């Protein structure tokens, strides 16, 4: 059992402070920065200069570790902005309109299209695309606005974001904290996210139908703002071409990635390689669509699209970087980078010590990591808790003899379903989905609760069988 020092107890105290702040719906950036400062101060023999340097190195290390994720998200959003400027975004989802003839079909179509769009573009930009275009069609087909919001929210900010199988932002953060291969996190995270999503959407549909809340009434149709503002977009040859080319190329990339993982004779495209391929393709379409749609003015337009993409990305990760910086102190591979050679991984040591004291079995570990994931998601981010669940999975899973990747993926799914989000009314995802559908975020969360709880419970049982 590792020897626990004053630094370990400081680290544990700050972790409890962070969790307590999340429970009381307070931001956790300040506790994390204070924690980094205190640990640096004590580790550097109570020197303020060393403490200040530790804070900077923690943020620098965190930013370096997460930059590739921030970059690919920024480039994908920039590409989407370019497509929106020529009307291709509307045309990409237009084929789904012809299927929306009844409330049930509209619910399934909204969830399916949102899942696909959110998988490639992330849910926040995707909800503006799918919601604005398809919700008016869904409501016209008789689907209630609350049901439409649930379909968007559960499929996008729940199932797609918690799996994050294409951009791999969430698995990358969790994997780095858990010190496991990203590919394992992607596979198991996608499986758990899909199980939770299918169960939650199924429960939501039957619950809405039982309560007579699936079908919109005349007053809801009349009051919905999107129906009033829905306008036809001018179709051009350029917009039609890119509306077909973009999804076709990204679909081809997915096929190539799948084949490369199954066929050992092909180059292995996963993790950083997959991120690079997606980011490079996004840049190509950003330039091509801008030049084709705007001519010489594309020289200025592209800069604007990139600026919007990077602003969107940094808004997400501005809070994640200091939080990750603190929790990276718990990882044996990253703590020495921040504090210096010989520094221990505090979370790993604490978990190892706990494993020697408590009989940590598969069942309490599985439900425990889900509970911790839910608590970390209460801040309304979802991503801020990934370093914690990853570190805990590594610290507790290894000594207990269970699969660390499975445990980390389970915590990741619980954290993002909660804060990404579907269960926190103050989460940007809930606010965006509810706002685009014209319903209350509190009502959306209230309806989501039972659906997501059942989904996470079943997923946890599946994880227990795998661990």
From TrEMBL:
It comes from the Bacteria. The chain crosses the membrane at residues 6-23, 28-46, 66-83, 104-122, 128-152, 190-208, 237-258, 278-299, 311-333, 353-374, 386-410, 416-436, 448-466. Keywords: Membrane, Transmembrane, Transmembrane helix. This is Putative membrane protein. It comes from Heliorestis convoluta.
């Amino acid at each position: 059992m590792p020897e626990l020092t004053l630094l370990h107890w400081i680290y544990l105290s700050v972790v409890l402070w962070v969790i307590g702040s999340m429970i009381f719906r307070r931001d956790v950036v300040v506790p994390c920065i204070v924690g980094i400062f205190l640990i640096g101060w004590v580790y550097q023999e109570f020197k303020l200069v060393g403490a200040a340097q530790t804070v900077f190195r923690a943020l620098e290390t965190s930013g370096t570790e997460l930059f590739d994720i921030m970059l690919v998200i920024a480039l994908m959003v920039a590409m989407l902005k370019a497509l929106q400027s020529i009307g291709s975004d509307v045309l990409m989802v237009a084929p789904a309109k012809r299927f929306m003839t009844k409330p049930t079909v509209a619910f399934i179509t909204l969830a399916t299209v949102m899942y696909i769009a959110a998988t490639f573009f992330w849910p926040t930009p995707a909800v503006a695309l799918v919601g604005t275009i398809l919700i008016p069609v869904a409501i016209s087909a008789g689907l209630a606005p609350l049901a439409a919001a649930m379909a968007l929210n559960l499929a996008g900010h729940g199932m797609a974001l918690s799996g994050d199988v294409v951009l791999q932002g969430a698995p990358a953060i969790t994997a780095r904290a858990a010190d496991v291969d990203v590919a394992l996190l992607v596979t198991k995270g996608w499986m758990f996210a899909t199980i939770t999503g299918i169960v939650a959407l199924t429960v939501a549909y039957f619950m809405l139908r039982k309560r007579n809340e699936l079908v919109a009434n005349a007053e809801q149709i009349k009051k919905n703002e999107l129906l009033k503002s829905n306008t036809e977009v001018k179709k051009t040859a350029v917009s039609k071409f890119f509306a077909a080319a973009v999804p076709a190329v990204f679909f081809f990339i997915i096929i190539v990635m799948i084949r490369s993982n199954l066929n050992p004779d092909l180059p292995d495209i996963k993790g950083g390689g997959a991120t690079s391929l997606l980011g490079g393709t996004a840049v190509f379409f950003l330039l091509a669509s801008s030049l084709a749609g705007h001519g010489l003015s594309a020289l200025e337009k592209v800069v604007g699209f990139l600026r919007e993409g990077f602003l969107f990305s940094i808004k997400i990760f501005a809070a994640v970087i200091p939080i990750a910086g603190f929790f990276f102190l718990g990882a044996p591979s990253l703590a020495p980078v921040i504090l210096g050679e010989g520094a221990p991984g505090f979370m790993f040591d604490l978990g190892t010590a706990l494993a020697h004291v408590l009989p940590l079995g598969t069942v309490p570990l599985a439900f425990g990591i889900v509970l911790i994931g839910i608590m970390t998601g209460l801040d309304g981010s979802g991503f801020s808790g990934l370093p914690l669940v990853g570190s805990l999975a590594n610290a507790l899973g290894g000594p207990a003899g269970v699969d660390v990747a499975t445990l980390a993926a389970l915590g990741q799914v619980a954290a993002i379903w909660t804060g990404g989000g579907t269960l926190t009314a103050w989460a940007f995802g809930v606010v965006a989905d509810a706002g685009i559908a014209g319903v209350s975020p509190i009502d959306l969360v209230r309806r989501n609760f039972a659906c997501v709880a059942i989904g996470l419970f079943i997923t946890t049982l599946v994880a227990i069988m795998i661990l």
